Amino acid sequence: MTFSPELEARFDKLLKSYPPGRERSAVVPMLMYAQDEVGAVTGELVEEVARRTGITPLQVNEVVTYYSMLHRQPLGKHHIQICTNISCLLTGGAELWEHACRRLGIGHKEVTEDGQFSLEEVECIGACSWAPALQVNYEFHHDMTPEKLDRLIESLRKVS
Fold first, then answer.
1. CA nearest to 119, candidates 131, 137, 132
2. Which of 31, 66, 90, 143 has the largest CB neighbor count within 10 A?
3. Share of the chain above pLDDT 70, in %
4. Domain spanning 5-66: which superfamily?
């Protein structure tokens, strides 16, 4: 599998940061970095990470199925994760989730037809003090309301 020179350099640095025989510790970050570049965790990617870390593809697949941030299907350009855990739930997280579903016309782990947005309901993003919260890709948005979400979606449409 071919990756960009930047990702190859990142993999090289990552693998060298672990003692010999401990390369398996790099599986999660390798999968996340590659997912960002490739778009999803493919079978080919699983095979490549297994080869580079010295473990079996089955062991890599076990990691993929355990971590919810790893996806087998491509996400939208703007992946919106809305927390509906207790702190967010008590401050409007459920209403925010329902509004996002209506606004984008998609549900949990679905992608808009144009590929611009995907939506995911998540348990916790660690932003309880600023609830309700959401993430777009790796960027946090706190104290969200349906109105703020509408403005955010419109601003993301403009940069697409």
1. 137
2. 31
3. 99
4. NADH-quinone oxidoreductase subunit E (1.10.10.1590)
